[in-house]
């Protein structure tokens, strides 16, 4: 859960970080008024859009096959066996 929160938090801050790097490269000044008076609304909208896009992508690509059951990861005879979805044997 914490990994998911950190991932989406980072996605939200990507536009702000990119803008800060751009301001530093273009102005080559550590204290630039443009960052304080910058387009924070548009940066927030872009960050929220990235988070929403990642959540939609996660929801669309994280499906189990119909009728399958989840088998958790295990250690069998000292070897790691990864988990996954299995179709039940009939």
Could you explain how this protein is built, in words?
By secondary structure, the protein is an alpha+beta fold. The chain has one domain (2-86). The protein has 3 helices and 4 strands. The chain has helices spanning 2-27, 33-36, 40-61; strands at residues 69-71, 74-76, 79-81, 84-86. The strands form 2 sheets. A two-stranded antiparallel sheet has the order 1-4. A hairpin with a 2-residue loop joins strand 2 (74-76) and strand 3. The longest helix is centred in the N-terminal third of the chain and has 26 residues, at 2-27.
Topology overview:
Elements: H1 2-27, H2 33-36, H3 40-61, E1 69-71, E2 74-76, E3 79-81, E4 84-86
Antiparallel strand pairs: 1-4, 2-3
Helix pairs in contact: 1-3
Features:
90 residues, alpha+beta, two-stranded antiparallel sheet, 58% helix
The radius of gyration is 22 Å
Structural class by SSE content: alpha+beta
Overall, the morphology is elongated
Taking pLDDT < 50 over at least 5 consecutive residues as the criterion, the unreliable ranges are: none
Q: Distance N terminus to C terminus?
A: 35 Å
By DSSP (H or I, 4+ residues per run), the number of helices equals 3
Tally of structural domains:
1
Helical content band: 55-70%
Lateral strand order in the biggest sheet: 1-4
Percent strand equals 5-15%
> What value does the average pLDDT take?
81
Biggest sheet record? 2 strands, antiparallel
Strand and helix order: HHHEEEE
Number of strands: 4
